[in-house]
Write a structure and sequence with these properties.
Blueprint: E1 4-9, H1 14-17, E2 21-22, H2 26-37, E3 41-46, H3 47-50, H4 54-64, E4 68-73, H5 78-91, E5 96-101, H6 102-106, H7 108-114, E6 120-122, H8 127-138, E7 152-156, E8 159-162, E9 189-190, E10 201-204, E11 207-209, H9 218-222, E12 227-229, H10 232-244, E13 250-253, H11 262-275, E14 280-285, H12 287-292, H13 294-302, E15 305-313, H14 317-323, H15 332-342, E16 346-353, H16 360-372, E17 378-382, H17 390-397, H18 423-438, H19 441-447, H20 451-481, H21 483-505
Parallel strand pairs: 1-3, 1-4, 4-5, 5-6, 10-13, 13-14, 14-15, 15-16, 16-17
Antiparallel strand pairs: 2-9, 6-7, 7-8, 11-12
């Protein structure tokens, strides 16, 4: 196929580089791999990993002169994706710009009307849809005749065309294993969870979606509360490649619900034992699935399970019920006992604050009950109502959303008040709980006895100190260095605010 395709990951500012996490976007890599398997001329540039800024990216686009540029959207970076499309059209108006990902899937009309420089939106799972779009463009199919391609949206004479949804791929093993030669593997590092050389850390994703219906979750909306996983054999084969060929030993599994399929977990344990792989990994899991499969935890530990990211969200049952989290908070003591019995060295509790019923007591319970149940690591994020979800519509209709700037939809900023707290107070509480926990001398002394907890605790303290003493200094230089970029992004935000006003006036 003759068309040149360039897939782009955006530059990220210097403040985020402090996190020492340079990991590939699994969706973009899967798409590039699929297109390559179909003999497409495809190239993927990860500007973040390569250390390439916006100006160098523009030069790269001019040099490559692709026929199609694609990227994947998430709400906090949507303005950057729009800027990429505008820069592309300025370089060469004939380049076809395509946007996929969660944000444009959930709000396609808003995105396309705000970003006239984006020619097509790929909605939902991207591999088959993007390939069919490439085929149609290669055959010079006009935009009026693109309606036969399932799973796309575009504007035709200012009329939104949204085609029939494309069903999800039933068997993920039918997709090729990610082709890691497409990305700069030597540039990827991770020292966030594991006290080992950063260049031995990496990420991988082996399933798509989650069957649960937590109202605040964009992934649940994107994957329509479904779950599909690759076979245990395919999972271990990929881990072998990453370990033997690229020297990766410590993994973050980015699955939304790794523990969902009990039978696959059993097969995974068997395949790992047969492989002889000596790796360590972190998974994300729910309280209820961990309790359901507590008998497997010791076996998972024996094949490398080291860290658990547990979505507790809150210790208040009313708050949990409001989130549609269907587990009993009283089970946390039971979970703590099961994890200790299995010898899992690094369980971390994740909380979401800023729910409508959150108050001083529910927030203080986060640190108080985490200690009570014997946990040593927590992470606190702000509730983010993702555009296009039912939850967003619900709170927006109630007039609760006070922040319209999508750049702040990043888990770090309060978007709406609670019944008892302003957004400013929610922001304060997120910082305060983090400070209270990681400055606690008892937590500190306990964590120093465990190399994983010690590493994460000291890392968290460094982030805390940076926030307190250095943030303004770094923030100043970030703005100074990227002044032109911020000016353009601000312009897109203003256009977005105007669009929201217009859309509401027409309801």
């Amino acid at each position: 196929m003759g068309l040149k395709i360039l897939l782009v990951e955006l530059p990220i500012d210097s403040w985020n580089r402090y996190a020492r996490r340079y990991l590939p976007n699994p969706g973009t890599l899967a798409l590039a791999t699929y297109l390559k398997s179909k003999s497409c001329d495809v190239k993927l540039i990860d500007t973040y990993a390569e250390g390439i800024g916006w100006k160098k990216l523009a030069k790269f686009i001019r040099k490559e002169d692709p026929d199609i540029i694609g990227s994947s959207s998430y709400t906090p970076d949507i303005y950057g994706r729009i800027l990429l499309a505008r820069i592309t059209k300025k370089i060469n108006p004939s380049i076809v710009t395509v946007l996929g990902g969660c944000h444009v899937t959930l709000v396609p009309e808003e995105t396309l009307r705000l970003a006239k420089a984006i020619d097509y939106a790929v909605l939902g799972e991207g591999e088959e849809t993007f390939f069919e779009l490439v085929q149609a463009l290669g055959n010079s199919v006009s935009s009026k005749d693109m309606g036969n391609i399932r799973g796309i949206a575009y504007l035709n004479d200012d009329t939104l065309i949204k085609t029939e949804p494309r069903p999800f791929i039933k068997n993920l093993d039918s997709l090729p294993m990610p082709d890691y030669s497409l990305i700069p593997m030597a540039r990827y590092t991770n020292s966030y969870y594991f006290p080992y050389p950063a260049n031995q850390g990496f990420s991988a994703t082996f399933s798509r979606g989650c069957p649960e219906k937590c109202n605040f979750c964009a992934e649940s909306a994107f994957w329509q509360s479904s779950w599909r996983g690759r076979s245990a054999k395919a999972v271990v084969e990929e881990l072998k490649v990453l370990n033997k060929k690229y020297g990766k030993r410590f993994f973050l599994f980015y699955d939304d619900n790794f523990m969902f399929n009990r039978q696959r977990n059993i097969e995974f344990i068997e395949e790992m034992r047969k492989s002889g792989l000596k790796i360590e990994y972190r998974i994300g899991a729910r309280v209820d699935t961990l309790l359901r499969d507590r008998a497997l935890l010791k076996d998972l530990r024996s094949v490398g399970l080291t860290a658990l990211q547990i979505g507790v969200e809150s210790f208040d049952q009313d708050v949990l019920n409001g989130m549609h989290k269907n587990y009993n908070v009283e089970k946390m003591k039971e979970l703590s006992h099961s994890l200790k019995e299995a010898g899992i060295p690094f369980p971390m509790l994740f909380f979401v604050i800023g729910n409508y019923n959150d108050n001083r007591k529910t927030l203080l319970d986060i640190t108080r009950k985490s200690k009570k149940y014997g946990f040593n690591a927590i992470q606190v994020t702000s509730l983010t109502p993702w555009p296009g979800t039912h939850f967003f519509e619900e709170v927006d209709n109630r007039g609760l959303i006070q922040v319209k700037d999508y750049r702040l939809y990043d888990f770090k900023n309060a978007i709406m008040p609670t019944k008892y707290l302003t957004t400013q107070k929610v922001d304060f509480w997120r910082f305060y709980l983090f400070f209270k926990w990681y400055s606690d001398i008892g937590v500190f002394l306990s964590n120093m006895k465990n190399r994983y907890l010690r590493h994460y605790h000291l890392y968290s303290v460094s982030i805390l100190l940076l926030n307190i003493f250095c943030y303004r200094f770094i923030h100043f230089f970030k703005i100074w260095n990227l002044f032109w970029y911020n000016r353009l992004i601000d312009r897109i935000h203003k256009e977005h605010a105007e669009y929201i006003k217009l859309a509401k006036s027409q309801k």
